[in-house]
Amino acid sequence: MSELVLALDLGTGGCKTSVWSAEGECLAESVVDYPTLHPRAGWNEQRPDDWWDAVVGATRTLMATSPEWKQRIVGIAVSGHSLGAVMLDTHHRPLGETTPIWSDTRATEEAAEYFARVDEESWYTTTGNGFTPALYPIFKAMWFRRHRTSDWSATRHLVGSKDYVNLRLTGALVTDHSYASGSGCYDLRERRYDETLLAAAGLDVSLLPPIVESTDQVGALTTEAADQLGLPRSTPVFAGGVDNACMALGSRGVTSGRMYASLGSSSWITVTSGAPVLDAHSRPFVFAHVVPGLYVSALSTFSSGTTMTWLRDLLAPGMAMSDFVTEACTAPLGADGLLFLPMLSGGTPLEGGTEARGVLHGMDLSHRRPHITRAALEGIAASLRRGLDIIGEFATDDSAVLISGGGSRHPGWNQIYADVFDVPLLRTKVDQQAAALGAAATALVGAGVWPSFDEAERPHVAKERYEPNQANAAKYTTVCTRFNEAVVAMARLRHAST
To answer: Are 81 and 11 in contact (CB under 8 A)?
Structure first.
């Protein structure tokens, strides 16, 4: 019987557990959701116990569907959502029921104080941490120290989501380079924590877990974990990686120059390269890849799928999203002059920063619902095109840009993307399983089933290809120019009003 691996895709909304064959085929998957709590504005928390319960529940469901699989599993690996900061005591127990997740911005004041002492541009070019600084764990740690003094005095370790699950699986407390690179204090080029950056935050390097390669075996299932999961004791567990890097690997990012677009609730353009893509103006966010020697660099727009959900619920409650998008595609290219800036959750540096907000510009009495919706689709694509123009310079594979995620399911929207990007787009059978495939690949390589990460290309059987319509692409040049001018104009208005 051939070997199998178990991939645990720990996302923001839940855990997707899947079984993968040595041929790179997903045999089955099970999903268990968990909530995000929002006790205050800017606070986004989850319960680490919920992560573990989801891992256990999804795994047991899978094993019940085919009990013979458990004897064939030669490895487990986790893809985990980034920028986690779970405080652990000396016995590796979480301090507090909840923990802030990647999107939590409570440490804004601490980050500002830090950059009164440390040059922010130098910090960025060292770490590649291009998200809003308050999101990163070292600033969350500073917030803990100030506001959760009792818990902080008992804290001995600070770990992320993936590494907390690995701890529960094996009892071993380690991380990998990809997850460490989102800590706020990792030197991308030196591949280690930067103790000078840590010292500026008043933190010691011993707080953070040791770093290993993503394919290293961190341990084996403990008796307790094996019994809960319904798997054999001593099943190997490999380090795995941060979701951004696992998704890149699962999106054909096995060599330098590969690019993909993830189109979901938020969306981003990502390139795999031999050097980090750094730019102080546009601030690409960079992670060390799970593939040694490579980096994953990306630019994003925060409100893409969430913009469409908001619009649908506002304008056509109860309407299926596919029908809502189909209706939008009946409106003419350019939406008869209507322009939509989709910064409903704030913007990236390219979109005007965290204070940016959405705009619907140019409306008159002739416009109808399809015009508004089409303008939103085009605005989301135009926002991503700004990132593509920067990230694309580092792409060497010009065959097609791989697309994945829930936003890639509608052919009409995909064609708008192809025309706005003016590049061919490819959708494959992997689709929304990219992060799971990336985690599975680290286990398959770590267990010696695959000789290299190149095998991760095998599952990418083409489903759809979208060629840009050159006449439409030329017209979208004007739309994108108007979009860029509007972003700049809105930034000026905000500055003038403050």
So the answer is: yes
Amino acid code (one letter) for 90: T
Which of 234, 267, 298 has its CA nearest to residue 380? 267
Quick one: how far is CA 240 from the chain centroid? 15
Phi, psi of 15 (to 5 degrees): -110, 125
Dist CA 215 CA 443 (whole Å): 6
Q: How many CB atoms lie within 10 A of CB 455?
A: 17
- Gap between the Cα atoms of 480 and 420, Å rounded: 8
Q: List residues bridging with 344 in a β-sheet.
A: 346
148-172 confidence digits (pLDDT tens) = 999 999 999 999 999 999 999 999 9
The pTM assigned to this predicted structure is: 0.92
Cα distance between the two ends of the chain: 67
CB burial of residue 413 (10 Å; 0-12, 13-18, 19+): buried
For the stretch 399-422, pLDDT in tens is: 789 998 888 889 999 999 999 999
User: Residues of 198-224 as b/e, b for ≥16 C-beta within 10 angstroms?
Assistant: bebbebeeebbbebbbbbebbbbbbee
**Mutual orientation of helices 369-391 and 411-421 as an angle, nearest 10°?**
50
Phi, psi dihedral angles at 458 (to 5 degrees): -55, -40
Which tokens in the block code for residue 135?
Answer: 């999101």
Contact 317, 342 (CB under 8 A): no
